[in-house]
Design goal:
This protein has about 70 residues and is an all-alpha fold. The chain is about 85% helix and about 0% strand. The longest helix has 29 residues.
Length: about 70
């Protein structure tokens, strides 16, 4: 069984990598759709979704760990 700490560490690592991929993707894809926002807003949007993703990922990991 995976400890809560290891569940968090795995989720955190996954989300950090996802955040970097998301920011790079936004910087490439948004201009293709004529969406131009400041980089600070881009980072903030990514940060909000990263927080949500971290909570979701950790929760799912703990549920599956109990099963």
């Amino acid at each position: 069984m995976q400890s809560k700490y290891h569940s968090f560490l795995e989720s955190f690592t996954n989300v950090v990598i996802g955040y970097l991929v998301a920011i790079i993707s936004q910087l490439v894809i948004f201009p293709l759709f004529d969406i131009n926002i400041p980089i600070a807003d881009n980072l903030l949007i990514g940060l909000y979704f990263t927080g949500i993703s971290l909570i979701r990922n950790y929760t799912i990991r703990r549920i599956f760990n109990k099963i």
